[in-house]
Predict the structure.
Amino acid sequence: MKQQLPDFFIKRLEQQYVPELLENIKDGFEKKRFTTFRVNTLKSNNEEVEKVLKDNNIEFEKASISDNAYIVKNANEAKIQELKIFNEGKIYLQSLSSMLPPIILEPKENNDILDMAAAPGGKTTQMAALSNNKSHITACERNPIRAEKLKYNIEKQGASCVFCMVKDSRKIDDFFSFDQILLDAPCSGSGTLDLENEKLNKYFTETLIEKSVKTQKLLLNKAITILKKGSEMVYSTCSILQEENEEVIQSALKTGKVEVVPIDIAKFENLPVLPTSINGTLCLMPNEYFEGFFVAKLKKL
């Protein structure tokens, strides 16, 4: 049986969005999302993958956000996981929304890059591919079980430029410094709520949001400390709540240590964009293609 969105969540959304947008958001949560993946350019290419899909009668279309991102029209994740190209790490199942932070960060070859909350490794291995395996990526994950999953995916995807650390990123030593940082922060997941999940009201709570905000602010402060001056980082969450997004960014801006680098939304077609209270940041509305998601790019002054 489908669950209802919790009342406290609706109230928060009512404070943020006009009634028409709120209805669109509610509709977005009702929709079944298409399966999406990206081609792992470290091991394969679009031509090889498209041929396999056609041979298996799998209908697909390219997503507008990236040349390597695909939307599957007539198969679920389980069906894709049966394919040899999946098991050989030539493709990676990933939501379109979660592909955006690495694309927006633009990881560069030879840069020292930190992924602060890396498991299960989708964004980590995507950054490795975007930098042709020629950057130096440190992937942090504090949970040992999740870290094993991260290591498995890094190996499977052939991301040899990644060094894995089982560590809480909040405790990284301040003498480290990085050219680029991706902080895909732990969050309430308010943009990815599954109404089919019977435990929705158990795990998605106001306490979870409050706890997430505390962690997010600590992680962002740490990121700013160990980011090199003049360098850029991306902060992202799979939440559509301002307190986990703009309010966290606002607290960092108040320190005077960072400024927002506006995201060029015109580069991406057909994004279901929600209004944000900070110009140049991006918030996506959940729909059949995208999860609810927030992305901000910051530069250290």
Notes: The chain has two domains: 35-93, 97-300. The radius of gyration is 19 Å.
